[in-house]
């Protein structure tokens, strides 16, 4: 399941809990991302993963990739917040091969992640 989190107007923020499906991406994340692009012509994205990565269905990962590709040139900043070292390492490496800035954060650094993703200074 995906929950929408409170965030500044230039950010979309979500929390993953339990099982995450393609439908979660299609009905919650994709419309919010589309709306943000229509408003500010870029994507500042925060994703708090509060579930095991194994709880994401294969089709959820595909939908995630589709949203990323569909908005390929619009990514500004994306923060992935999790305690999974694997996900943090992947996120940090991913930022070297795609447009925009991608950064992984530990859960205890949630406030820092939100500050960074909204364009806060001093964290680059």
UniProtKB/TrEMBL annotation:
Q: Which Gene3D superfamilies match?
A: SpoIIaa-like domains
What domain of life does the UniProt record list for this protein's source?
Bacteria
In terms of Pfam families, this protein maps to: SpoIIAA-like (PF11964)
Q: Which residues form a coiled coil?
A: none
Query: Mind telling me what this protein is named?
Result: STAS/SEC14 domain-containing protein
Q: Which organism is it from?
A: Flavobacterium pectinovorum
Record lineage: Bacteria, Pseudomonadati, Bacteroidota, Flavobacteriia, Flavobacteriales
